[in-house]
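Reagents: none. Just compute today. Lipid II isoglutaminyl synthase (glutamine-hydrolyzing) subunit GatD.
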Amino acid sequence: MPETLIVSEPRDGRPEHTLRVCALYPDLMNIYADRGNLLLLERRCAWRGMGFVLTGAGLGEAVDPDAHDLFYMGGGQDRDQALCAQDLVDTKREALHAAAARGAVVLGVCGGYQLLGHSYELGDDVLPGVGLLDLKTVRHEGPRLIGNVAIEVTLPDLDGARTIAGFENHGGRTHLAAGQGSLGRVLAGRGNTGDSGAEGARSGNVVGTYIHGPLLPKNAWLADWLTHRALGLDRPLAPLDDAMEDAAHASARAAAGL
Ligand code: GLN
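Predicted 3D structure written out:
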């Protein structure tokens, strides 16, 4: 049974004002403090008086596609990805497709991003992915793509282009199929392959990116966009005092050389 890790009630008692997050393999797929992404979502809900529920789904545990608004899978070492890739396909693939089809957000970071595609080839081994994004990843003999990164993104519901800044560290090179949109355009750093100029991938509310950092504390605006999409809200989220978050974003941008 998936384990409930955090529960906090909405201030107004209305269940629709609760963000329900399911973390996939929170123990295995969690490097570079990916947990910070989940805690940031929790904090921003609490500050707005919204409820927050975090459930962790590990090996062998089926997930209910209707019980969560946002599914999250963080980064992982190749060996950790190998432990969960087949399980993801066997026990969670259908639910994730059903959830995505009804508009739930699915966010994969780095190793999690790679497993949202069709496959991750590691020499003679091929790890299966869930195929929510039309892409495949190949482990490259060459150097790992490591360093600070910044990308420009244009997203529905948002005016103008925004910047996501953070840190990447991956050996895999991710190749998008012809019709698959990227998440953004590389401004600094390496991105999907090191030379394609594309970073991440997005199909509707399914989002994958190589950007750690952690991603959301350095890009709080993105956390709000994901929350807004996950809950299918008509009205914008209440503004927060983001002085600290803006400083973190500015520092991540500066680290990437912007
Ligand atoms: N193991 C994967 C790679 O090296 C993903 C790494 C990560 O999640 N940082 O490509």
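The mean pLDDT is 96.
Action item: order primers for follow-up constructs.
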